[in-house]
Design goal:
It contains ten helices and ten strands. The chain is α+β, with helices and mostly antiparallel strands and about 290 residues long. A five-stranded antiparallel sheet has the order 1-7-2-5-9. Helix 5 packs across helix 6. The longest helix is centred in the middle third of the chain and has 19 residues.
Length: about 290
């Protein structure tokens, strides 16, 4: 499989400019939002599970959605930030197929791209750099609603600018699926495109043209998890995004991701996240790390 641009959908949530002086020090941040930074001055550090990255001026940095990370800053530090998310079913998750570098040198027009987006959409700036100061209202739902109500030409412009920034990382990315069994690759694409529907092992094994037991062995060998564990994790990740970007009730979110048993959805969510869906929503509206 080769990933086509038409199969990927990335939407801007927030964009802005932030200046800090030793106050960018948030710990164990994790959300269903992808972050891109352009550093203009000063230095800071991002702690990722497998490495630490020192942020430097005139470089771009990316943190994929659902990545646990921490920020550390002990002096002056300024940067542009872009928060983006993948919308609905029918699209693939780019990060399932590519390992992107965390840091790349910025190109000459990247700062202008951020400045242009900030000038066109000042309302997309986050209200504070302190996650604990975010109100529990419909802040992020309003950002998503604002995007959905934009005219088509403005959506096209923003999507193009986001893809330009993503292209800097894709230029140095490793195509993960090139070393993966093609049968598993097909299954992953199907899961991506149908995450809001019921997905069972019969469908996936038939798609892969192997028996169900053999498909499970292939899948676990490739991803070190069972197919159903993987599907449930992806459904919960989709639910996390819906909980912070829409005003749907927990029960409605459960239905959207294809789980009709509301009680089972709550149990599954708590098993994966350690908290109930409502507790997660309340926490993220207080703790969504901003800039």
């Amino acid at each position: 499989m080769s990933v086509s641009l038409e199969s990927v959908d990335v939407r801007m949530l927030n964009v802005g400019y932030a200046w800090h002086d030793g106050d960018w020090n948030w710990k164990n941040v994790c959300s269903p939002i992808t972050r891109i930074y352009y550093v203009t001055e000063g230095e800071a550090t991002i702690r990722l599970p497998e490495k630490s990255v020192r942020l430097r001026p005139d470089h771009l940095y990316i943190i994929p959605a659902n990545t646990v990370h921490s920020y550390e800053c002990d002096g002056p530090f300024a940067h542009y930030y872009l928060h983006a998310f993948t919308s609905s079913e029918g699209y693939i998750n780019l990060f399932n197929y590519y390992d992107l570098p965390t840091e790349v040198p910025a190109e000459h027009m990247d700062k202008e791209i951020f400045m242009h987006m900030c000038q066109r959409h000042p309302e997309a700036k986050l209200p504070s750099s302190d996650p604990s100061s975010y109100e529990e209202g419909d802040l992020f739902e309003s950002y998503v609603r604002r995007y959905s109500e934009m005219p088509l030409h403005e959506k096209a412009l923003l999507k193009g600018l986001v893809f330009i920034l993503l292209s800097r990382f894709l230029k140095q990315a490793t195509y993960r699926s090139s070393v993966m069994d093609k049968r598993i690759e097909k299954a992953l694409e199907y899961i991506d495109r149908n995450i809001c529907n019921e997905i069972n092992l019969d469908i996936l094994s038939n798609l892969s043209c192997v028996t169900k037991p053999y498909f499970i062995r292939l899948f676990k060998a490739a991803l070190d998890t069972t197919p159903m564990q993987y599907i449930n994790k992806k459904k919960v990740e989709k639910a996390q995004l819906l909980l912070i970007t829409t005003d749907k009730t927990v029960q409605e979110v459960s239905y959207v991701i294809g789980i009709l048993d509301h009680s089972y959805f709550i149990r599954l969510f708590k098993k994966v996240c350690g908290v109930t869906p409502q507790e997660y929503r309340n926490r993220m509206k207080r703790v969504m790390s901003g800039v």
